[in-house]
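Fig. S4 source data, part A: sequence.
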Amino acid sequence: MGLFDKNPAPPSQPLAPPPSYNAGGSSSSVNSGAYGSDKKEPFPPPPAAESPYQTGQAGPSYQAAYGAVLLSSSDKIRLLNFPEHVIGVVGDTITRAWPPGIQTRGRLEYGGFEFKLKGRPWYGQGSEAVPARRLMIHFLHCMATQGWHLAASTDLSKKSWDKDTLFFRAGPPVQRMFFSVSFNEYDKIRIIDPPNDAIKNALISAVHTWPMGIQDQKEKEYGCYQLKLRGSPWATSNGAQVSQSRLLALNLMSTMDNLGYELAACVDMSIGAGDESNDIDSWFFASKL
């Protein structure tokens, strides 16, 4: 039988009871035939348990700090459970990265801090679509430099026009390069603020593996290169296109992985438009740590 068998065979003979114990230490407490003795004496209470051995910061005495960021309404960023200095740095980042600026800012009566931006960044369409992704690029970089790293981006609402909540975990501050790949409308991919031409060209080459071909490609605006694919990869019911679009996504991740970048965040950051929504998660790559 193996050492860790779950159901070992029973012993051929029943085990004898342990010898009686005398707290006073008398030699008469254990008879010469201790394991077969009829003399019974009460066992003492067990000794008090020692404090558990702690290994680093993973023990019960350590509790990781988490914070949440809500992309609220069409124009608000709400921070929960972050220290004051982080809120200040986030405000500075928004001012630099969002050209329309901040309309109002302040504490909420039920906790947290909220920035109300000018414009409608979370509509995710029109002239604000690319700047909104650029804002998220700068925001993720800002959080990393302050020692807050994305742990999860998840949907906690059943509303038709909801967006993700971003959960961050406190850790060491790091410098990471971020950029975005967004999937727009039914057939477009946008490469936003890649760190260099090598990264941009590698992504363009990866997109060109789309079996149905590329309909159009251009520099949509400064820092944003757009490719329009043939077919409808983001809205198709065709089985082949469904699989091919996922293979294209795998190719994008693999290409970036080989160049030292990893997919650090997938964020639903747009309101969309209900059942007719063009809303798809935006991807954010970051240099590997």
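Fig. S4 source data, part B ends here. Residues 239-258 form the longest helix (20 residues).
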